[in-house]
Every structure is written in C-alpha cells, then in structure tokens.
C-alpha cells in the first residue's frame, strides 16, 4: 500500500472528527454533498454524491460515495451506512474507517437510484451486512 503524504492540517482535521450520530447538530444536505471522504490514514476514498433516506424512518440511511471516473463518466457509487462516518467540526471532511480494497469490494448502486425503487429493505440488508462485516474487521486491526 502506498504511503500517503497527508498535510499536518489535514491530519489534525481527521483526528478531530467525531461520529456523525453522536454530534448534537443537524446536517444539511448541501454541506454533505460534494464533501471529500478520507480514511484515518488520510487516503482519499471519494466524495459524497448523494444521500439516501430510509422510507421506514425518514432519516438518512446512507451516504453514497462517488469513486473514480472522469467528470462523472465511469464513476462508481458505493452506499455506506450513515452511522459509519465521522465528521470534522466544520463538516469540510468526512472520515470513514475503510481501505481502498474495502471500498472497491463494496456493493454499488447506479448513481444512487437503485435503492430508491421498490425493494429498499432487501437492498439495504445487503449493504448493511457488507459494511457490518468490513467495519468490524477494520476496527479489529
């Protein structure tokens, strides 16, 4: 795995990130969309392209990370459970404890639309299971 040269200011941002579900604040869609996502090592994982609401709860269920591609062409979209993220104090960076390999192997959606149709519950179970298995592995290492 290549060593990432992370600027000191960004290291401080990552270290200051707190779980999104534990923060006593609301998040606006316009502050989340386009936000860069990095892992704790500072490796870029993509940026937030969409957010998916649960039809059962009406709350954010997933953030969809856009990865790769050029100007949106060939980009892959990976939904990740909302509670897997940490946010920096000004929400200018989101932190996800995942490797490139984990992101590459994650379930994908067609630019976020696949989970908006019928069958959200079944599709979300697949996504949740993947991240449950891979996030616990990441934290165990």
Automatic annotation (TrEMBL):
Superkingdom in the source lineage: Bacteria
Domain (PRC-barrel) ranges: 26-88
Signal peptide: none
InterPro entries (alphabetical): PRC-brl_dom, PRC_barrel-like_sf
Protein name: Antigen
Organism in which the protein naturally occurs: Caballeronia sordidicola (Burkholderia sordidicola)
